[in-house]
Amino acid sequence: MSASWAPMMAAMMLPGALPAIARSQRAPLFAGSYLVVWMAAGLAIYALYTPPAPAVAAALIGAAVLYELTPFARACRRRCRAERRSGLRFGAWCMGSSFGLMAVLVALDPMNLPLMCAAGAIALIHKELLA
Are 121 and 101 in contact (CB under 8 A)? Predict the structure, then answer.
């Protein structure tokens, strides 16, 4: 995995934030602080990443599925849709909402562009369409 992971992570999650950024009265500050959250997450993953063994990857995927069913994940999704005042808080809630997706991405292949696009699309659907 290369150092380009952090900016790619931020770019992957930016489309899901565009509706909130468009509604923000301070769009540049909102977008910048949102991207800071995702860049920090990307840097942390880059710093800690080692390719998982197949059994560990399967366990990560199973844990990600279970996480998506938790009340905490649902609360994060709800707050990710509702938060509009702060890009940092919005980013944090959206990261909590997308944590399962990120775990699957790390378990399978974090540098796989089609997988990144799929994760970004799923995150957008989570934020804007699912209640």
Answer: no
- pTM of the full predicted structure? 0.77
* Cβ-based neighbour number of residue 121 at 10 Å: 13
- CA-wise closest residue to 94 among 35, 47, 49, 46: 35
Tokens of 92: 């944090």
Long-range contacts of 19-28 (CB under 8 A, 24+ apart): 19/127, 19/128, 20/83, 20/84, 20/90, 20/127, 23/84, 24/84, 24/87
The span from the CA of 65 to the CA of 82, in Å, is 23
Please list the pLDDT of the chain residue by residue as tens digits (131 residues).
556 766 777 777 777 788 888 888 888 899 889 888 888 888 888 888 888 899 998 999 899 989 988 999 989 988 887 777 888 999 999 899 888 888 888 888 877 778 778 877 877 777 666 64
Where along the chain do its domains lie? 5-128
